[in-house]
User: Fold this.
Amino acid sequence: MGGFGTLIGAGGGFILVPVLLLLYPDKSPETITSISLAVVFLNALSGSISYARMKLIDYKSGLMLASTVVPASIIGAVTTAYIPRRLFDIFFALLLILIALYISIRPQKASGSKGARKSYSIIRKITDVKGVVYNYSFNPAIGLTTGACVGFLSSLMGIGGGIIHVPILIHLLTFPVHLATATSLFMLAIMSFSATLVHFSNGLIAEGLSQIVAIGIGVIMGAPVGARISQHIKGRWIVRSLALALGLVGIRILLTAF
Assistant:
């Protein structure tokens, strides 16, 4: 989970939540999300350190977008307690399937250009450790608005947000794929930490501490592996892997809910 979650910039929460839903059918949605978000934080932190060494993280954009993601994620963490388990499962599954379809229908946007695209008010130039230069620009209004939505939904579902944020960074904000996955993971570390603090204050972390420790050790070890592998895979294959994983997990949860 740690390796694949880091590879696609999603943090692995979209894999962990379905597994927890199947293994612990009697646990409440807030307990499931608290376990997942704590593990996602460990995964995102470990993966971000690896991507930082590769110089693939756009820190300025990540911090700017996180300014709306974090407050919204706190609201989402609190809201989870008021959602019935079956409704939670159905909504989560449909969300994953819709995102998978969107990515599959628009594969031409997935590759991420190294050259400048449309000229927006935010212009970035990033040079990675291999000397590859990425020029791109994006609309900050779109980034901040979608960031708030992602923060709320991802924290609500316990998936960390990368699974939603990566497609947004690529399709709407024109980030090159490899920078999108790395920057998404960096933002994910910030967002999942804030949401985890909310669950900790509610006493939910203590309920799933044994699962968090056991799974957390695995993702910390796997995250650097996923980051290294990403350097040898073309952007379009990363996006296709993301879409396939989303679709399969969404269908599995939907079938279980009914």
About this structure: The longest strand covers residues 122-127. The beta strands are 122-127, 133-138. Residues 2-257 form one domain.
